[in-house]
Amino acid sequence: MIKPLGQRVLIKRAEAEQKTAGGLFLPDNAKEKPQEAIVVAVGTGGRDENGKLIDFTVKENDRVLISKYGGTEVKIDGQDYVIVSEQDILGIID
Amino acid sequence: MIKPLGQRVLIKRAEAEQKTAGGLFLPDNAKEKPQEAIVVAVGTGGRDENGKLIDFTVKENDRVLISKYGGTEVKIDGQDYVIVSEQDILGIID
Amino acid sequence: MIKPLGQRVLIKRAEAEQKTAGGLFLPDNAKEKPQEAIVVAVGTGGRDENGKLIDFTVKENDRVLISKYGGTEVKIDGQDYVIVSEQDILGIID
Amino acid sequence: MIKPLGQRVLIKRAEAEQKTAGGLFLPDNAKEKPQEAIVVAVGTGGRDENGKLIDFTVKENDRVLISKYGGTEVKIDGQDYVIVSEQDILGIID
Amino acid sequence: MIKPLGQRVLIKRAEAEQKTAGGLFLPDNAKEKPQEAIVVAVGTGGRDENGKLIDFTVKENDRVLISKYGGTEVKIDGQDYVIVSEQDILGIID
Amino acid sequence: MIKPLGQRVLIKRAEAEQKTAGGLFLPDNAKEKPQEAIVVAVGTGGRDENGKLIDFTVKENDRVLISKYGGTEVKIDGQDYVIVSEQDILGIID
Amino acid sequence: MIKPLGQRVLIKRAEAEQKTAGGLFLPDNAKEKPQEAIVVAVGTGGRDENGKLIDFTVKENDRVLISKYGGTEVKIDGQDYVIVSEQDILGIID
């Protein structure tokens, strides 16, 4: 498994579907399409200007909303994951 | 529902109308058209350089003025919302 | 009425006239035309790097000099106003 | 009169002449032409990162050297002035 | 051998293979191809704003994931190495 | 005479010659031609983020090496001088 | 001799050879060709945000690896040297 470095997060995108489990509908024609994803692992943690570790706001298994085209795609054991910076996560889906 | 991450805010745009409830008239030919919106949810909070949580200036149900083209559009249960950074909100309408 | 967010200021531009009340003459052919305006409302206040509220230098009813093309125009009850960042105000007219 | 905002300074350019009072000769073909000017008023003062007021290095009536094309021109009672940021002043002429 | 300067790291890329030892499969058509590598040496250490040495998150012999095209290639005794900034390492492979 | 403002320095370029007094030879075809100069006056001093005056590293009469095309040229009593930022001085010639 | 200003370093590039003394082979077709060099003199020292002198990581006679095209070339007594910022040095060759 991959432990993301710094303030990065490893996520798994949800399958594309018209109406998601969270009741979130993602229109086809949106300029900047957000997409649901599950947080698989948070990173080793970034550091602020004083060298203090920054806490993550998201945690494992959180359902999050991310931009469709951000991050770096990796494949682990045949499955697709994405490594994104936590600040590129738009929100947490309750 | 979505909890925006960091200093982001979830808003619902007001219907386009010539004369809004707050007496705010938005001309058609303005270069950068601002638009009324309602704050639906504030985010998890950003952090300043010392890692201290930054308070939100806006709160739920505030009527605010935002730029017409900023933010990321999302649809929840068939309704349109926008996730914007709080610093892109121009003002609060009393 | 609108309460500008952060270090923004709501202003009303003075009518264009050759010789203003303050004796300030604004030439037609200036490259970057400044323009007189009245401060209608100061914002909720910006914050410095330590999260401390920054005081406004201008206050309500101050006559100020701003760049002609800066800010965002809004109409309230049929009158034109502009929301500008305080640091885009060039000076206060005594 | 105008009180410049922040770290700005109100200056009056010296008349163009071949040999200035300070013995400073300004060549016609210099790529970036500096020009003599008199400080008419210093601003309300900028603030450093800790919110502390920054002192001005120049003061009223100082003869200074500025770039010919910087700043914003304003006319007060028929006379031309320029509002420049203090850090765009190249030097003080003794 | 080379001791990288500052927050840089000396790495040796893994041989290109379809299925790596860590079970990490790297698709041919990924827009930004990440690639496995081994950390050979960490640098002399960067410094934060207060001049304090920043610890490395990776250490010698860590298997890491880096962007395929980042860093500077060097050859030592006929073998290819890469010098990358630690913040360009995407994650550590357990 | 001119007192440069902030961290600026007033210098006088050395005459162009193939082999300078310091044994420094400046090739004609160098991409970025450095050039010898004499420090005539240091500025009023810049300030760091805490508002503390920054000391100058160079002092009057130092022979320095600067980029040939940097700074702003001024003429004083018929002689050419240049005002440069101290950080654009490459080195001091012993 | 030249004393570089600030965090700059004066270096002398090693002669181009296929296999260097340190066993470092530099391929002809590398996109960004690094090159061996000897540190001849470190600078007067940079300063961090608090005005404290930053120590140099490299010292005189260190063999270092730098980018082939960085820095400013100078000739001293007929020999070629380069002035580079210390942070553009990739590593120290042991």
TrEMBL record, chains A, B, C, D, E, F, G:
Keyword Cytoplasm among UniProt keywords: yes
InterPro entries associated with the record: Chaperonin_GroES (IPR020818), Chaperonin_GroES_sf (IPR037124), GroES-like_sf (IPR011032)
Any one GO cellular component localisation term in the record: cytoplasm
Superkingdom assignment: Bacteria
Primary localization class, coarse: cytoplasm
Record-linked CDD domains: cpn10
Coiled-coil intervals, chain numbering: none
Pfam families: Cpn10
Compartments (UniProt record): Cytoplasm
Keywords (A to Z) from UniProt: Chaperone, Cytoplasm
MF annotations from Gene Ontology: ATP binding; metal ion binding; protein folding chaperone; protein-folding chaperone binding; unfolded protein binding
Role: Together with the chaperonin GroEL, plays an essential role in assisting protein folding. The GroEL-GroES system forms a nano-cage that allows encapsulation of the non-native substrate proteins and provides a physical environment optimized to promote and accelerate protein folding. GroES binds to the apical surface of the GroEL ring, thereby capping the opening of the GroEL channel.
Assigned protein family: Belongs to the GroES chaperonin family.
Assembly and interaction partners: Heptamer of 7 subunits arranged in a ring. Interacts with the chaperonin GroEL.
PANTHER family with a match to the protein in the record: 10 KDA HEAT SHOCK PROTEIN, 20 KDA CHAPERONIN, CHLOROPLASTIC
UniProt protein name: Co-chaperonin GroES
Organism for this UniProt entry: Akkermansia glycaniphila
Gene: groES
